[in-house]
UniProtKB/TrEMBL annotation:
InterPro entries: Class_I_gatase-like
SUPFAM superfamilies assigned: Class I glutamine amidotransferase-like
Domain of life: Eukaryota
Taxonomic placement: Eukaryota, Viridiplantae, Streptophyta, Embryophyta, Tracheophyta
Native species: Hevea brasiliensis
Protein name: Phosphoribosylformylglycinamidine synthase
Membrane-spanning ranges: none
């Protein structure tokens, strides 16, 4: 049994408690129904090979579109993706249901903040409805394909020197330019 399955099985057994929360960053080598989505919130959703047919490792813009506790106060993020099998896929009826129930937590967006509309490179994998993350269990579970854990330091952004220079020109302290 994979360590992630052990954590999920433990979390699911405790899911009736009001404080229970779960966040999962999906790896390209995971089969979603068998591991991360095992607890039944999104049983018909799978990750499949990217439309571009190759591994993608770069930064994308995503917009929050639900009330998940994990995304409270976050409207938009610029975060890395790193996957070859990151396309959310499900039957049309299931996708429509996810949208209707507010389970689509984040969508890929263009630099302007407008929806990606399935266009590469803004939607890096061809996910239906530009889905980048799903939320369930009353907003307490968040499953996302982008990898915010790869963006721990401001200097990991490919454009960090440009952002730093612009921040300094605006009079922001150089050691805080990535945060203000």
């Amino acid at each position: 049994m994979h360590i992630n399955e052990r954590v999920l099985n433990l979390s699911v057994s405790e899911s009736s408690t009001p404080w229970w929360c779960l966040v999962g960053f999906l790896r390209g080598d995971d089969t979603v129904p068998a591991t991360h989505l095992r607890y039944g919130i999104f049983p018909d959703v799978a990750l499949v090979r990217n439309d571009v047919g190759r591994y993608q490792c770069r930064w994308v813009r995503v917009r929050s579109c639900c009330g998940s506790v994990w995304l409270k106060g976050i409207d938009e993020m610029y975060i890395p993706v790193a996957h070859g099998e990151g396309k959310f896929c499900a039957p049309d009826g299931v996708l429509d249901g996810l949208v209707e129930h507010g389970s689509v937590a984040m969508k890929y967006a263009k630099p302007s903040g407008e929806p990606a509309d399935g266009q590469f490179p803004h939607n890096p994998n061809g996910s239906a409805y530009d889905i980048a993350a799903l939320s369930g269990n009353g907003g307490r579970a968040l499953l996302m394909m982008p990898h915010p854990e790869r963006a721990v330091f401001f200097t990991q952004r490919y454009d960090w020197t440009d952002v730093k220079d612009a921040s300094m020109r605006a009079g922001k302290p150089p050691h805080l330019c990535g945060w203000l």
